[in-house]
Fold this sequence. Notes:
The protein has helices spanning about 15-30, 30-40, 45-65, 85-90, 140-145, 160-165, 185-200, 225-230, 255-265, 270-275, 285-300, 325-330, 345-355, 370-385, 390-405, and strands spanning about 1-10, 75-80, 90-95, 120-125, 175-180, 215, 235-240, 315-320, 320-325, 340, 360-365, 415-420. By secondary structure, it is an alpha/beta fold.
Amino acid sequence: MRWIDINLSETNICQEAEALMADAERLAEKIIGIQARDGLDNRSVVDQMQEAGRNLFKAVLRVDQEAFHVDEDRPGSITPEVCLKEPDELTGYHITTDDRYIHLPWNWLHNGLEFLTVKNPVCVSTEPSRPPEGEAERPWMQRMVRADFLVGEGGSTSLKSVLSQMKEQQPRGPEVLFVPGHTEEAIRRLIYREAEAIELALDSPILTEPLARLEIPGEALTPSQLPELGLTYQAIHFAGPTSQPARPTDVEGEFWINRLVEEATTAADGEMEKTVGLEGEVLGVDPITSLLDDVGQKAHHAGREEPAPTSDSGHNWLLPDGPVGPEGISRTGGLPPLVFSNSYCALPDLGPRFTNAGASTFIGPQVPLFSRPARIFAGYCYKAMGEGWCAGAAVWKASQACRRELGEDHPAWLSYGLHGYGSLALQYL
C-alpha cells in the first residue's frame, strides 16, 4: 500500500488550526460523559466522534489545502506488496506531528460527508512514514526493504512464494506474547477468549505457515518478569478491561457477581434471559461468553466505578501483582516493535509513551468499549496481519469488518487507532 505524509509539525501550525485542534480535544474528552449518560455503544458517541473529526479535518486543511489529495508526487512511502489486491491498492494518510498533538483522535477525521477511514487507513507518528535509512534501522525495517528484492519460484514475488527466504535466518517464527491484565475472576475468563480469537486469526489459510504464533504464559506475569521478556518476543498483546479502568482494589469473588453467574449458568434458557437481560444468544458466541459480556455491561451501567480521567491519568498496564508502564519495560529490558494494548482508553495515553520508549507501532482503543466488540476488533486485526497486511492496513480492515458486523452507528469501528509505523508487518518481525 501507499502512505501519504501529512506534516503537522509545530512549526507549521497556524493559530486557527491550533484552535480547531483544541476544540477537537475538548469534544473527545466529553465522550466518556456521553457514554456514562447514554451507554458505551450509543449512536450519540459516533455523533461526537464526527464533530471532533470535522474540526481535525478543518485544522489539517488550514495547514495544507491539498493534504488529502491522492497525488503521486506527494511525499510518503510504499510498502512491499503482498499480492492481494485490496491491501496492495490501498492509500493511507500518515499524520506526522509532535507530542503536543499526537494524542488527538486522528482516526476520526471527517470531511463533512464521511469519516476518512471508510476508504483510507489513517495513522499518526512523530516520524514520517518512511523508515529511517542507515545503520539505525531496526531489523524489521531492514527485512521490509529486502522484501522488495525477493523472487520466488517461477519469478513470483507473492508473499507466499518468498516467505521462506524472508525467514531463512530465523530458527523460529515471530512470537506474540499474550499478557493478561488484572481484573475480576469472572471477567478474566473473557480475556482468555480473546487469546483464543487471536490464535485462530493468526492461523491463516492463505499462507503455507503462520506469520506469527501467540505465546500464552502458563502463569500470570509479574511487573518484574515482563521487562525481562520484552526483547525475547517480537510483539506483545495486552488484554485487560476495555469498558472501565482496571483497579488494584478489584476484589476477586465478589458475592454479587458469583451469584449472578451461578444463577445464569444453572437456570433454563428463559430464566437465564430474565436473570441477565439477554435477548437470546448472540450469533457465533457461546452462552457463557454472552453471559460474561452482559455481566461486564451490567457492572458498568450499575455505576460501580466512576468514569475515570482519559489521557491525563497516566495509567499503566495493571498485572495481578501490580502496575507496569512502557518506561519501566524499556528501562530494564526492551520493547518489541509491535505492541497491541486492548485496554481502557489505551491509545491517547499509552500509545505515545510506548513509541517514545522504543516500540515501532502501537495499536489500541481511543475510547471505552465493551469486551465483546474489543475482542471482535482484535480478531479481525490479527486475521489481516496474519494474511500479510501491514499493521496500518490491518487496523483499517478490522474497522471495516466491525462496521459491517456491528453497524455504522456502533462506535467500535472508530474506536481503534495506530501510533507509529503503519508499514510494520508480521512477516518482517
